[in-house]
Amino acid sequence: MAVLACHAVHLLRRKLAMAEICDSWSTIRNKLAHWDRVTTRVRTVDGRLIENCQDTTPGREAVEIAKAVGVEPQLRRKQI
């Protein structure tokens, strides 16, 4: 698993370098650290599970990183 993670990081950093983002992996992680997905689960009285997933708003640097690797940042909200 560690080898796969190493390759994934390498590929991401190469894509970022093509977009002239040459930060260290630690810096990239710090820039993405505040972009979270919040999941809340509640069970109703009749036993149904309601799950709500919502992304926080990414910061400007997180948006730049996401777009550089082909991810379009959006606020996602899903209720099951």
Care to give the gist of this entry?
This protein has 80 residues and is α+β, with helices and mostly antiparallel strands. Helix content is 42%, strand content 21%.
Q: Describe it for me?
A:
The chain has 80 residues and is of the alpha+beta class. The protein has one domain. Helices cover 42% and strands 21% of the residues. It has helices at 2-18, 25-32, 60-68, and strands spanning 37-43, 49-55, 77-79. The protein has a three-stranded antiparallel sheet with strand order 1-2-3, with no helix packed on it. A hairpin with a 5-residue loop joins strand 1 (37-43) and strand 2. The chain starts with a helix and ends with a strand. The mean pLDDT is 87.
Give the ordered list of helices and strands. Answer: HHEEHE
Helical region count?
3
* Oligomerization state: single chain
How many separate structural domains? 1
